[in-house]
């Protein structure tokens, strides 16, 4: 490529399946492939000479001037590849979330260009869920959507972590929509709302006459979710006896209805969610370690609202649009009301934001919500000391690679693996399958815990 000119690079650019564009040091587009032109509704004959930020961001200034991580700046500064996540606008001017890989490319004369490959993550339609739309453009939100998209592409079990009210059910709906099981059911159960004696009946169903007053057969949620996805919200509240039953079903795919003798099978992908520290619950005896490693094939943390406070204005507008009656004018927030919302820490996250806005709507006049209409149930005003050292969002990691949080947890995992080795007479493949990890990962753990 060092001996190529922009025109000679055009044939190489055109073979890229994803949108790809070549940009000079002044943000001007030198060449673009057909996929890029189609995606952004620009004629290929007229694309050259346009500024990249005008095409993809509909902005008159480069993205770094709008507070974004700019691949153009980094590539020209360092001469190294740089990857970012941005919000672009497609041919219909709809926002879409994309992953961008910026590559340094040199022409024959040694001149440096930015080669920008664009990989769509999700458009606005993908983010429309049953009850709400996932919206935002903050780095924490975009990173979260990126990792949700990657997780959806696999068929591994997913554990969604995060504070109460961050939108774990919306995330589960998004994963289902982007998964290969999107034409099959998404069945949802909130474990915190089920009576202890009803858990087994809810999950596995019952046969006629299974208990007093039972007059017919009932299919359980596990059966209804066959070939689809079962979302168990607040799984940390599941009683221990039910955890053991769930583990057996996840390992074998087999179960029986209460009062039944027929062994049934179901192919179910599990998504679980919790706002509890499950590792702490394991240490305290309130959660099974073997179930934890089964459900946490992919461990995904959703950011709190205070980690993405720049999204509050668009989130608030989306919520107000949702709660406005059909045919009625939309409610609007004054700048002072927006400032007041962004100065609050939201311990209840998006759920609390919705409740605050519902109350504000009831008090507002002429569909205008002022700062005086915004009331907080908790006095958690933001200040520099509380936000200066916030932990960066770490959205995804394979649970099999989680570093033990304490010596006791390491011992717990080592003990669990050792028991499995004994159960399977040292057959590592079976142990790895039970843990839901690869043999290579298992081998590393055996070495780490001196079990080899």
Describe the structure.
The chain is an alpha/beta fold. It has four domains: 6-122, 2-Layer Sandwich (Beta-Lactamase); 139-303, Rossmann fold; 305-387, Helicase, Ruva Protein, domain 3; 403-452, Arc Repressor Mutant, subunit A (Orthogonal Bundle), CATH 1.10.10. A hairpin with a 5-residue loop joins β1 and β2 (29-32). It has a six-stranded mixed β-sheet with strand order 7-10-13-6-14-17. Strands 2-1-5-4-3 form a five-stranded antiparallel β-sheet, sandwiched between helices. The chain has 18 helices and 17 strands. The longest helix is centred in the last third of the chain and has 17 residues, at 407-423. The chain is 36% helix and 17% strand. The protein has helices spanning 6-14, 34-39, 52-56, 71-78, 139-153, 168-178, 199-204, 221-224, 240-252, 278-283, 289-295, 312-323, 335-342, 349-363, 384-387, 407-423, 428-435, 439-448; strands at residues 20-23, 29-32, 82-89, 95-106, 112-123, 158-161, 186-190, 205-206, 218-219, 229-233, 254-255, 264-265, 269-274, 298-301, 332-333, 368-369, 396-398.
SSE order and pairing:
Elements: H1 6-14, E1 20-23, E2 29-32, H2 34-39, H3 52-56, H4 71-78, E3 82-89, E4 95-106, E5 112-123, H5 139-153, E6 158-161, H6 168-178, E7 186-190, H7 199-204, E8 205-206, E9 218-219, H8 221-224, E10 229-233, H9 240-252, E11 254-255, E12 264-265, E13 269-274, H10 278-283, H11 289-295, E14 298-301, H12 312-323, E15 332-333, H13 335-342, H14 349-363, E16 368-369, H15 384-387, E17 396-398, H16 407-423, H17 428-435, H18 439-448
Parallel strand pairs: 6-13, 6-14, 7-10, 10-13, 15-16
Antiparallel strand pairs: 1-2, 1-5, 3-4, 4-5, 8-9, 11-12, 14-17
């Amino acid at each position: 490529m060092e001996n190529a000119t922009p025109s000679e690079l055009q044939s190489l650019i055109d073979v890229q399946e994803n949108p790809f564009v070549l940009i000079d040091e002044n943000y001007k587009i030198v060449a673009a492939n057909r996929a890029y032109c189609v995606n952004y509704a620009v004629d290929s004959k007229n694309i050259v000479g346009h500024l990249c930020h005008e095409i993809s961001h509909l902005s008159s200034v480069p993205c770094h001037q709008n507070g974004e991580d700019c691949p153009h700046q980094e590539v020209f500064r360092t001469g190294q590849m740089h990857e970012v996540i941005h919000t672009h606008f497609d041919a219909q001017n709809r926002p879409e979330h994309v992953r961008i890989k910026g590559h340094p490319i040199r022409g024959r004369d040694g001149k440096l260009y930015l080669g920008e490959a664009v990989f769509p993550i999700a458009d606005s339609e993908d983010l429309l869920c049953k009850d709400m739309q996932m919206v935002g453009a903050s780095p924490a939100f975009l990173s979260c959507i990126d990792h949700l998209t990657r997780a959806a592409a696999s068929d591994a079990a997913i554990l969604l972590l995060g504070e109460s009210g961050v939108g774990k059910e919306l995330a589960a709906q998004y994963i289902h929509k982007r998964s290969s099981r999107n034409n099959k059911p998404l069945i949802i159960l909130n474990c915190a709302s089920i009576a202890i004696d009803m858990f087994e009946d809810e999950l596995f169903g019952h046969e006629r006459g299974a208990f007093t007053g039972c007059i017919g057969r009932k299919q359980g949620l596990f059966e209804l979710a066959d070939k689809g996805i079962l979302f168990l919200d607040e799984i940390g509240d599941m009683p221990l006896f039910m955890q053991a039953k769930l583990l057996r079903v996840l390992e074998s795919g087999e179960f029986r209805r209460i009062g039944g003798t027929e062994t049934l099978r179901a192919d179910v992908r599990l998504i679980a969610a919790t706002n509890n520290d499950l590792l702490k619950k394991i240490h305290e005896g309130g959660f099974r370690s073997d179930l934890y490693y089964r459900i946490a094939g992919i461990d995904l943390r959703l950011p709190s609202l205070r980690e993405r406070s720049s999204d509050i204005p668009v989130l608030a507008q989306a919520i107000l649009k949702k709660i406005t009656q059909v045919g009625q004018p939309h409610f609007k927030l004054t700048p002072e009301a927006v400032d007041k919302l962004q100065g609050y820490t939201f311990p209840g996250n998006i759920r609390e934001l919705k409740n605050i806005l519902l109350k504000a709507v009831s008090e507002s006049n002429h569909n205008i919500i002022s700062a005086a209409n915004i009331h907080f149930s908790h006095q958690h005003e933001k200040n520099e000391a509380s936000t200066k050292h916030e932990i960066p969002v770490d959205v995804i990691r394979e649970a099999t690679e989680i570093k033990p949080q304490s010596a006791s947890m390491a011992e717990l995992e080592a003990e669990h693996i050792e028991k499995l080795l004994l159960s399977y007479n040292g057959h590592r493949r079976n142990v790895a399958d039970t843990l839901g990890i690869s043999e290579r990962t298992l081998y590393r753990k055996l070495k780490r815990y001196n079990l080899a």
